[in-house]
Design goal:
heterodimer, A: 416 residues, alpha/beta, six-stranded parallel beta sheet, two-stranded antiparallel ribbon, 10 strands, 41% helix, B: 260 residues, five-stranded mixed beta sheet, three-stranded parallel beta sheet, 8 strands, disordered C terminus
Chain lengths: 416, 260
């Protein structure tokens, strides 16, 4: 074909960029073999102008693909430039970027050429070469190809830190509409296989320390939002189910970037639903770290997240009866549900309150967003005097917001 | 009022704190050598750094504080901020007065400042782990020049030694005029005579023949992963403040992009 590496990078990085995951954390691979590389909490080495972290060399092995999924830029019917890396080219790029401290490692995905197994085999080869020939101990995230065999999945797990199977669409129905060639089972089955294999590996490791690592950073998934009509409630409900049943580390929500004139999809020029995506991530955090249930945040009758305020504030406003709480006596689990108090500041309050009573200024210095929290707490020298009604307080807080969101938000509304 | 002047070293500061206790000084200021000390109505004493005294102070602190808090104390010192000595002395005094671990009383001003300052230093450490960019020279040395806000080289040494165990590297702090150099066995502090125009060292003659290529590939990659439809410069700048750009190939002005 005669395309140079420079051009391949341009084409295959461009094609991979809609995959949002760039996390390089959660693994604890050490550099014990005198090679190069370590993993830890993950480092963002750069940020693109869209504000996203660049932690991994995130590329496709190839964007040739036999499938025709409507939402995907690499779909068969799309008239774009195609390219393919050789295994060695990806290995060289990874090693040379890594040695210059540009990246934490590699995130390799691929269009599907010839068959699922054929493709998966090449992805595994790259990882294997890095680990064995180059003694590379940096981070490797492999995307698993739907329908790939268990044997290949197993081999992938031995070399990769993290594996992910993209669900692509929030529901079976959307998938059938957008990607008629793909079946939800092709995604669920490998996920289930990985869940079991990871769990077994962790058990083995307890007994025998020398058990080789198997996907130490676990598995994740991603789905496109805003391309199909699912509600936030459906999405969160599903994410919660996958967190619980598949032990996923993360569910990534990718706001659909219009790239197609296909009439099943939002037209080109439709704004990317960035605010909605952000609210979903906030709600996702509430599920994972703040012990909220999806049904506490949303319901069938109110299935959409409030775009103007964050989901925790929204929840608190609907439960004003539970407030105000006294920060000197409230449990950790209660404190973290107060708008403006995070996990870290809740811990600080609990540590500091045994030394004496705290006032607003002190907790502000600990990181509490007092302008918000003050309506929901009592503390030294402070009780909210006004008897707020939910709607009134909501408006009051929105008026007082000078958040970085505000501009974004209004500019987006103007587009409608 | 007494003023103690010490020699910029951590041991020097600890010795000064020892002297405060030994001489039962009540009204006291501690400054680094060379700081403009307000001279009125004060007696100035030069602290003679003594590792035994320093170790005793360290041991006392370690008895009263958690390892994390001891480390925070050290990070605060590395911040080199004006009057940080004053805070650290206040922190020490408060710690020794209390029967319970004082480090958790975030309501106390010195405790909070120590906590917050060490966080700032920690953030800078993390940034340097992220923003160091090595260039490969013809004799296979990976080198990088940085200008961190705080003196973080002592904090990043271990990370780079463990990660890049099989390559020779040098990271040079051009503000504080010293670097750390790894020779495949151990890391040593080095003083170098770099010309003030550090970039002069980057003349193509001394670089590895592939260096320019990989830098360009990186620039190309950086450009290609951006999604213009999601442009958010405010977020971009928040994470990558401009003052770091001059050492980042992907943000260098005139970084020629072969495509696009």
């Amino acid at each position: 074909m005669g395309i140079g590496v420079m051009e391949k990078v341009a084409i295959l990085a461009d094609a991979a960029k809609y995959d949002v995951s760039c996390s390089s954390s959660g693994s604890k691979r050490k550099n014990l073999n005198g090679g190069v590389g370590t993993t830890g909490n993950g480092i963002c080495h750069a940020y693109t102008e869209d504000g996203r972290c660049v932690s991994l060399l995130k590329i496709l092995l190839t964007n040739f693909c036999i499938y025709d999924c409507a939402y995907c830029v690499s779909r068969k019917s799309n008239d774009i430039r195609r390219a393919a890396f050789t295994v060695q080219e990806v290995v060289d790029l990874t090693m040379n970027f890594y040695r210059r401290n540009y990246i934490e490692g590699l995130f390799l995905s691929s269009g599907i050429f010839s068959s699922a197994d054929y493709t998966m085999e090449r992805l595994v080869q790259v990882a294997k070469k890095l680990r064995t020939e180059h003694r590379f101990n940096g981070y490797i995230h492999l995307k698993t190809i739907p329908g790939a065999s268990d044997e290949l999945m197993k081999e992938a797990g031995l070399y990769a830190d993290r594996l992910s199977v993209n669900l692509e669409m929030p529901t079976r129905e959307s998938l059938a509409l957008m990607a008629p060639d793909k079946k939800r089972e092709d995604m669920i089955n490998p996920m289930r296989y990985l869940k079991t294999a990871i769990a077994e590996n962790r058990e083995d490791k307890k007994v025998l320390k020398k058990t080789p690592l198997f996907a130490p950073a676990g598995q994740t998934t991603q789905l496109v939002i805003g391309a199909t009509p699912e509600t936030d409630y459906q999405i969160l409900w599903m994410a919660d189910k996958f967190y619980r049943h598949m032990q996923l580390k993360r569910v990534y929500y990718s706001g659909y970037v219009p790239i197609s004139t296909d009439n099943r999809l939002p037209a080109i020029g439709t704004p990317v639903p960035v605010i909605r995506e952000n609210r979903l991530y906030q709600a996702d955090w509430l599920l994972r770290f703040y012990k909220f249930q999806p049904a506490e945040l949303l319901s069938d009758s109110a299935p959409l997240l409030d775009l103007e305020i964050d989901p925790k504030l929204s929840w608190a406003l609907q439960h004003l009866g539970l407030f105000p709480i006294d920060i000197h006596t409230a449990d950790y689990a209660v404190l973290i549900r107060v708008p403006g108090i995070g996990l870290e500041s809740a811990r600080k309050i609990i540590a500091a309150r045994s030394f004496g009573r705290l006032d607003l200024e002190q907790i502000r210095k600990m990181g509490v967003v007092v302008s918000r929290a003050r309506y929901f707490i009592t503390c030294r020298h402070h009780t909210e005097r006004k008897d707020w009604q939910s709607q009134q307080l909501r408006q009051h807080l929105i008026d007082g917001m000078t958040s970085r969101f505000r501009n974004n938000f209004t500019s987006q509304l103007n587009l409608f | 009022m007494t003023t103690l002047v010490y020699d910029h070293s951590f041991e020097g500061l600890l010795t000064a704190i020892f002297d405060v206790y030994e001489s039962r000084l009540k009204e006291v200021n501690i400054f680094r050598e060379g700081t403009n000390v307000p001279a009125m109505f004060t007696e100035t004493r030069v602290v003679i750094t003594d590792t035994t005294k320093a170790a005793r102070v360290m041991r006392t602190l370690a008895d009263r504080l958690s390892p994390v808090a001891v480390r925070q104390f050290y990070k605060c010192f590395l911040s080199g901020l004006p009057e940080i000595e004053h805070t650290l002395l206040g922190y020490t005094r408060y710690t020794l007065q209390q029967l319970v671990p004082a480090e958790r009383n975030f309501g106390h001003p010195d405790v909070l400042i120590v906590h917050q300052t060490s966080r700032k230093v920690e953030r800078e450490k993390h940034r340097m782990e992220a923003f160091v960019r090595f260039s490969l020279t013809a004799d296979q040395l990976y080198y990088s020049i940085i200008q961190p806000d705080y003196d973080v080289l002592p904090l990043i040494t271990r990370h780079f030694r463990e990660r890049y165990a099989d390559q020779r590297w040098l990271i040079y702090d051009s503000i504080r005029k010293y670097g750390i150099y790894y020779d495949l066995k151990a890391v040593a502090q080095v003083q170098l005579e770099f010309s003030t125009h550090a970039n002069a060292a980057e003349s193509a003659a001394v670089l590895d023949e592939k260096e320019a290529l990989y830098r360009q590939l990186w620039q190309q990659y950086f450009n290609s992963v951006n999604i213009p439809a999601r442009k958010n410069m405010k977020l971009h700048l928040q994470h990558m403040p401009r003052r770091y750009w001059r050492n980042l190939p992907e943000k260098m002005p005139g970084g020629k992009l072969p495509l696009n």
